[in-house]
Amino acid sequence: MTKNLSEYVLYEASRSIPLEKKEWVVRQIMQYRRQVATEKRENHKKQEKRVHELSEILSEAFESSTVITVVTYGIYKNREYSGVIIKLDLREEKILLKCQESMQWLHFSSILHVY
Fold first, then answer.
1. Residue 92 belongs to what domain range?
2. Which InterPro entries match (predicted)?
3. pLDDT tens across 45-73, in order?
4. Which residues of the chain have pLDDT under 50?
5. Phi/psi of residue 16, each to 5°?
6. Which one, 27, 64, 66, 93, has the greatest CB density within 10 A?
7. At what angle do helices 3-16 and 19-64 cross, to 10 degrees?
8. 3 state DSSP class of 89
């Protein structure tokens, strides 16, 4: 629910709903806003933790030049790439993976598993 929508709901509520209902509507909207804010914070923390763990694993593989297998999310099916990390960009959260035949830029958000 956006701010404008919640204000509209309050406006409509104030026109035809008794005072007890108005208070209930306001409490429900405030509860919804708190819930959405909490969920956003939790999701952001989970995403930060995932990116941190993934960057540690990929940094270690990059420094040791070991061959890794990366499974990425695909629209129709997941894709699997095997190769050596040529470039690691932690700022943009992506890697350049040199596979047998080509090079692939893979973004952290598309990576499901690293072996």
1. 3-114
2. YolD
3. 999 999 999 999 999 999 999 999 999 98
4. 1
5. -130, -5
6. 93
7. 170
8. strand
Cβ atoms of residues 110 and 72 within 8 Å: yes
37-to-1, 40, 43, 60 alpha-carbon distances in Å: 12, 5, 10, 35
If one counts the domains in the chain, the total is 1
Three-state DSSP at 93 gives coil
3-state secondary structure of 19: helix
Confidence (pTM): 0.64
**Cα(96)–Cα(16) distance, rounded to whole angstroms?**
61
41 and 48 Cβ atoms separated by less than 8 Å: no
Instruction: Give bridge partners of residue 52 from the DSSP assignment.
Output: none
Helices in the chain by DSSP H: which ranges? 3-16, 19-64
Q: What is the CATH number of the domain that holds 17?
A: 2.30.30.100
